[in-house]
Amino acid sequence: MNSDRLAADGGSPRVVVAGETLIDFLPDREGSLRSVESFSRRPGGAPANVAVALSHLDETPAFSTRVGDDPFGDFLVETLADAGLGTEFVERDPEAKTSLAFVALGDDADRGFSFYRDRTADTRMEPGAVPDATLEAAEWVHVGGVTLTNEPSREATFDLMRRARDAGATVSFDPNARPELWSEFDYAESVQEAFELADVVKATPEDLDELDYDGDPESVGREITEDGPHTVFLTLGSEGSLAVTTEASPWSDGGDVVSHGGYDVDPVDTTGAGDAFTAGVVAALVDGRSLSESLAFANAVAAVTTTAAGAMTALPDREAVREFVASQ
Q1: Where exactly are the transmembrane stretches of this chain (predicted)?
Q2: Which of 23, 121, 135, 186 is the most buried (most CB within 10 A)?
Q3: Given a cut of 90, is residue 79 above it in pLDDT?
Q4: What is the pTM of this model?
C-alpha cells in the first residue's frame, strides 16, 4: 500500500469495502448457457471487484468478505492477497460453500448470470465484522445490494452503513440488481432503505427498473437524492455517465449535474465495468478531484476493463488508464 494513500493516522486505509466474493465462470462462446461447453474460472463479486480495482489504482482498501473453507475459497483468498489486499477481514466459513456464478455473454459482450448461492458463505456475513476503529479511520465505506438478499448478511450490511455514517465516513451503495437472487426480501423496499443510509449511490437504469422513478437520467437522479443520498452517479453504457448532486454534496456548487460521454471501445466482456467505474469514482474523489474529473477518470477505468475478459482480471492500473486516455 502506498504511504500517500493512507488515512491521516498513518496506517489505516482511507476506504473500506464490504460484500460478496465469488467465482465467475466465463463461457467459451456467446449465447445461451445451454450451448456452452466449457467455462473459465475467474474471481468476481461486485464489492470484491471494487476492492481489487481500488488496489490497482493505488487506493488499497480494507475489504470485508466471507468465503467458504473450500478450494474455491482458497483460490479467492489467494487472489485477494495477490492483488495487494489484506485478509484481516476475510472470513472463512467452515459450514458453507463459496458462491458460484455462471456468465452468459450476449452479442455486445453484455452478460447475464446464473447463480449458485443457496446459503453460501457470503449470505452468512455477520454484523460487526469491521471494527469501529477501522471505520473511524476511514473516509469512505462502500457496499452493494447483493448482500441484502439474505440474513444475516442483510443486517450486516445495514449495520455497517449505519456505523460508518455515525463514524463520519462517506457511505456509498450500488444496488447491483440481480433479480433471481431476491426471494426472501423485496428488492425495491430493500434498495430504498439502503438509499436512506447512503450518501452516494451508483446505479444503472436497469438497477432502478423496479423502483418508482420515471423520466430521463437527470430526473431520475434528482428523485433518488430526495430519498437520502446527496450524490448520485448513473452509468449509461455507451452513452457514458452523469452525476447529480444536492447542495449538501461536498462536490456540489449549489446542486450540479455533470455528465461525461464516455469512450469508444470494442468491448470483449462488460462484466465488472460498473465496479471499475465505482472504484474510479471513489479513488478520484478521495484524492480530491472535481466531480467532472472524477467522472472522466471513472469512465476511462470502466472502458479499459471491457477490453479484456473477466471482471477482476481485467481491471487496469493508473498507468493503463493514462495510456488509454492519451490514445483517445
Answers
A1: none
A2: 121
A3: yes
A4: 0.93
